[in-house]
UniProtKB/TrEMBL annotation:
L-methionine binds at I437, G438, S439, E490, D605. It holds the Pfam family Meth_synt_1. It comes from Solanum verrucosum. Catalyzes the transfer of a methyl group from 5-methyltetrahydrofolate to homocysteine resulting in methionine formation. This is 5-methyltetrahydropteroyltriglutamate--homocysteine S-methyltransferase. It catalyses: 5-methyltetrahydropteroyltri-L-glutamate + L-homocysteine = tetrahydropteroyltri-L-glutamate + L-methionine. Residues 3-316 form the Cobalamin-independent methionine synthase MetE N-terminal domain. Zn(2+) 1 binds at H647, C649, E671, C733. Belongs to the vitamin-B12 independent methionine synthase family. InterPro entries: Cbl-indep_Met_Synth_N, Cobalamin-indep_Met_synthase, Met_Synth_C/arc, UROD/MetE-like_sf. HAMAP family: Meth_synth. GO terms for molecular function: 5-methyltetrahydropteroyltriglutamate-homocysteine S-methyltransferase activity; methionine synthase activity; zinc ion binding.
């Protein structure tokens, strides 16, 4: 039996690619320097998998930003605003599409299915002149082959690429993107021909959209596309890979009938119902790539259970046609457990990062072939038993409190309109109040202070002094800019989830468990291994200190329970909603302590609420019910005069707008500018929103500084569909990834735009 890995993390065990990218973007290193770091990373990944015994090793899963943008480059689908004149796409055009530049904005960025990974959304229309403009897939295959590794080149499948795209600006929203299939397939054929000529014997086409609820015409597009590609694919073994959920029965039927396809890959961790379809109707003579090792979490595989599952599948497809695989790309997990020298030994024994998952996949393949590593399986069984019986996992008081939540829907007693009136009397804010989302730039000096404090190189007194000075700088800047509701800038926090997890029980932390979110942005998700509670206040000290520095309202800044859940590696031994309710109770304690400390505006970020929405519509209602309920739990007991904000970013919110309203926050700030103000269409279509709302007026993920006129134009578009008395003016997201030389003029222009429109509105009365 053979083994396969869908994809592998790109950043490197110590985030080598992140630092190389940022050095290049800052002009401190050359394109050749960046390419050298990247080549070294690819080489080490291929060697690691080869040494581990993996037979089907992927190539072209490395990316400088994301694999969908790579496909856009391959197809030459560059929006005209980037002034690309043809030829092989170089870094300048590529990174302008991803990040924008001084003169034009970036393309839209959104979440990759229900993960915290992001991709750049292709902008397509009838006038796009597709051309073969990036030979990356072929070049990386040749690169690996020159190192003695025969890989499986991976491409985003043509139908999924189009289904993940959007009509470009100026193109009718109803434009049928699948009508472009005939225009992109010739380029896929060119790529396939070059791969065959280079010696490739396998190719992997990722078609993850097959797990979605697709209408019949979309399923027909798969049939059409692969029938068209059949002759080009002749002579190759072709794997069509799916992941993240069950493949619906209709899509399964379409998938297994595709022309020219040799093998099918399924996520059997999150897609357990697909098993029944495989057992009843998997086509004879085809390969089954069985994704039994979880690519999205860090728990060690239950090898005995996975082996039993593979053995049952062996009877369906035959030993020579069964391949042990990961459930999806390992991009979504941390790189290597060997770098975790400070992690608790017991917890460490329960874990497997990407490097360990590669070993697990091969161990399963060997066991099924009759070469079972008894010692490895025995150690795994012991770790599984240890985790089930460890007393550190369970806290009866927490479980009892969480269970008691089931009897109430936890709503504040007064409706939002009355609360806003009470809050305005206390806060006395102008119309179109200005604010920011929370974080301010994380300078090199600030990171040094946190790092040295953690390493005990500076005292607590020195640390508090340095952080206090940073907060004062941020407060003074906001007062200078005349922002209405202030933030303290979060200088004490490296990450919005990690910061809270470090202060909650039931969490563990890694030193190098970094996971790519987008581009060079990496996060280090905490590990929720047990029941969650809050031993002591987490933010009250810093929020109170910041409020003492100003007479303006200072927001208390918290991360909400759903976001903490969705941005963590979550225990898989109880339902996710139970863990979420536990976190909600901990955040509720913090909200009440902030209110007691005199903080009158409290922001509870739920940036990841939409991200956790199941991929299948039938499962939406259950998730949204417990997710929204969890948010309401956090602030149910506070006074009407305390204003609760929440924040959401980089997802499509239009389909859950009624659940967002049901969260019953007083104010929501929400990403809007980078997605072409898609959010506003909801209000144009008649959805009534009575709470405060701040659709973002500029994109903080681009270094570009918007003009006052541009921001004012955005605000006026918002006023066309939203009442003046509920609209807030704010950026799309937090400012930690930007530099002060970008932040200050952008915020200056934002405040100026708000004041200009206030004056216009006053004179119009």
């Amino acid at each position: 039996m053979a083994s396969h890995v869908v994809g592998y993390p790109r950043m490197g065990p110590k985030r080598e690619l992140k630092f190389a990218l940022e050095s290049f973007w800052d002009g401190k290193s050359s394109a050749e320097d960046l390419k050298k770091v990247s080549a070294d990373l690819r080489s080490s990944i291929w060697k690691q998998m080869s040494d581990a015994g993996i037979k089907y090793i992927p190539s072209n899963t490395f990316s400088y930003y994301d694999q969908v943008l790579d496909t856009t480059a391959m197809l030459g689908a560059v929006p005209s605003r980037y002034n690309w004149t043809g030829g092989e796409i170089e870094f300048g055009t590529y990174f302008s599409m991803a990040r924008g530049n001084a003169s034009v904005p970036a393309m839209e960025m959104t979440k990759w299915f229900d993960t915290n990974y992001h991709f750049i959304v292709p902008e397509l229309g009838p006038d796009v002149n597709f051309s073969y403009a990036s030979h990356k897939a072929v070049n990386e295959y040749k690169e690996a082959k020159a190192q003695g590794v025969d890989t499986v080149p991976v491409l985003v499948g043509p139908v999924s690429y189009l289904l993940l795209s959007k009509p470009a600006k100026g193109v009718e929203k109803s434009f049928p993107l699948l009508s472009l299939l005939d225009k992109i397939l010739p380029i896929y054929k060119e790529v396939i021909a070059e791969l065959k000529a280079a010696g490739a014997s396998w190719i992997q086409l990722d078609e993850p959209t097959l797990v979605l609820d697709l209408e019949s015409h979309k399923l027909e597009a798969f049939t059409k596309a692969y029938a068209d590609l059949e002759s080009s694919l002749s002579g190759l073994n072709v794997l069509v890979e799916t992941y993240f959920a069950d493949v619906p029965a209709g899509a399964f039927k379409t998938l297994i009938a595709l022309k020219g396809v040799t093998a099918f890959g399924f996520d059997l961790v999150r897609g357990t119902q697909t098993l029944e379809l495989i057992k009843s109707s998997f086509p004879s003579g085809k390969y089954l790539f069985a994704g039994v090792v979880d690519g999205r979490n860090i728990w060690a595989n239950d090898l005995a259970a996975s082996l039993a599952l593979l053995q049952s599948l062996e009877g369906v497809v035959g030993k020579d046609k069964l391949v042990a695989s990961t459930s999806c790309s390992l991009l979504h997990t941390a790189v290597d457990l060997i770098n975790e020298t400070k992690l608790d030994d017991e917890i460490k024994s329960w874990l497997a990062f990407a490097a360990q998952k590669v070993v697990e996949v091969n161990a399963l393949a060997k066991a099924l072939s009759g070469a079972k590593d008894e010692a490895f399986f025995s150690a795994n069984a012991a770790a599984q038993a240890s985790r089930k019986s460890s007393p550190r996992v369970t806290n009866e008081a927490v479980q009892k409190a969480s269970a008691a939540l089931q009897g109430s829907d936890h709503r504040r007693a007064t409706n939002v309109s009355a609360r806003l009136d009470a809050q305005q009397k206390k806060l006395n804010l102008p119309i179109l109040p200005t604010t920011t989302i929370g974080s301010f730039p994380q300078t090199v000096e600030l990171r040094r202070v946190r790092r040295e404090y953690k390493a005990k190189k500076i005292s607590e007194e020195e640390y508090v002094k340095a952080i206090t000075e940073e907060i004062k700088k941020v407060v003074d800047l906001q007062e200078e800019l005349d922002i209405d509701v202030l933030v303290h800038g979060e200088p004490e926090r490296n990450d919005m989830v990690e910061y809270f997890g470090e202060q909650l029980s039931g969490f563990a932390f890694t030193a190098n468990g970094w996971v790519q979110s987008y581009g060079s942005r990496c996060v280090k998700p905490p590990i929720i291994y047990g029941d969650v509670s809050r031993p002591k206040p987490m933010t009250v000290f810093w929020s109170s200190k910041a409020q003492e520095m100003t007479k303006r309202p200072m927001k208390g800044m918290l991360t909400g329970p759903v976001t903490i859940l969705n941005w963590s590696f979550v225990r898989n031994d109880q339902p996710r909603f139970e863990t979420c309710y536990q976190i909600a109770l901990a955040i509720k304690d913090e909200v009440e302590d902030l209110e007691k400390a005199g903080i009158t505006v409290i922001q509870i970020d739920e940036a990841a609420l939409r991200e956790g929405l199941p991929l299948r519509k039938a499962e939406h209602a259950f998730y949204l019910n417990w997710a929204v309920h969890s948010f309401r739990i956090t602030n149910v007991g506070i006074e009407d005069t305390t204003q609760i904000h929440t924040h959401m970013c980089y997802s499509n919110f239009n389909d859950i707008i009624h659940s967002i309203i049901d969260m019953d926050a007083d104010v929501i700030t929400i990403e809007n500018s980078r997605s072409d103000e898609k959010l506003l269409s909801v209000f144009r279509e008649g959805v009534k929103y009575g709470a405060g709302i701040g659709p973002g007026v500029y994109d903080i993920h681009s270094p570009r500084i918007p003009s006052t006129e541009e921001i004012a134009d955005r605000v006026n578009k918002m006023l066309a569909v939203l009442d003046t008395n509920i609209l807030w003016v704010n950026p799309d997201c937090g400012l930690k990834t930007r530099k002060y030389i970008e932040v200050k003029p952008a915020l200056q222009n934002m405040v100026s735009a708000a004041k200009t429109i206030r004056t216009q509105l006053a004179s119009a009365k």
